[in-house]
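User:
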Amino acid sequence: MKFKKIIKHKKHLVLGLLLSTLLLTGCVKTTNDPLEVPAKTPSVWQENNQETEEIMPSQSTEETQESQTEPIEESTVSVNTTREEVSYRCEDGIDLNRAEHRCASDGANLYLAYAETDLYVLVAGESKHQPVGLKNPAELKVCNVTIDTEGKIHLLMATPELDKWYIWQLDDAMQPEKEVNITPFFVKNRIPLWFMVDKDGYYYLQWIEDRKGLILDTDGALIHETTCAALGVNWIYEATVGKDGSIYLVYNRKGENKKIGTLDTKLGSLRQDGIILKLPETDTFSAMAAGTDTEILLYGPYCGVWSYDSEIRTFEQRIKPEDIGYSGDMDFRPLGFQVDGRFVTVGGAMESNARVKELLLKYIPAGR
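Assistant: Predicted structure:
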């Protein structure tokens, strides 16, 4: 294998803390200058009023000390502030755009699900992807991929007819070590667009057509079925696992602006009434991931890249749409966010029946 798998080990806590200190003091480049945005969409908006988050039980002194000395949810990947452009060359006929909304990052690698019989990996900065070499004698299709807070890779798998569905958990050698059958909860021929696992090991899957979703436990048992009506919302626009390991939703209620809130996977309900996003009603989001210095990063084709800080409830623009920098005649799509905070886009389009096509990959810093 030419790619490098990044894995967290709790038993190396002390070493991890020392390395984190070195990174923070000497290796991470940050900036305090916010990006300019048009007056109609302020670059920073902070909520100071009206909506109150759920009050959680206070922690004991021992619990507080433990949370301060064992930061198992913190990323071990340093922030990357280098902008990079790479010419991507497709040599196997697989369109990189097929992995939009079906990819996951561990920092060094971007894992891509194409509904092929193997998982693919794109090493940051390289010009082509490669299969990881899954042992898959049943020739199941890799329909989606996610990475949990401990660095484990999980795959959503299906038979070629899309009538049987499974979740695979991969080991360090990139081979399945656990499989759960989730077929009873699926409608045939419908691939969910959202697939993620939270800090408690609960899976969340959601379909694009009607935004219906499933919450499954780590063994694939059904915990809740979700709908927009059951959650008390009009529509769900995006979903991701945030930096704290919770699932965040961008949603709205009828006649209201979009909001960000967290999904309680145990109760199957929104845990809090989220911060209001002060954006034009027509703006939407098509990519969302955990941030580096904030809880989440979001991308919208009309509003660029934004960050959301759940602690101080701040919504801030990081990249303006025009700063993404593709030429006017080149179509581009968001591929996703790297764990290092860089927004990854792919420009150009696969020609019909083409075996080789030049695409332009951009890695644009959004983290700090």
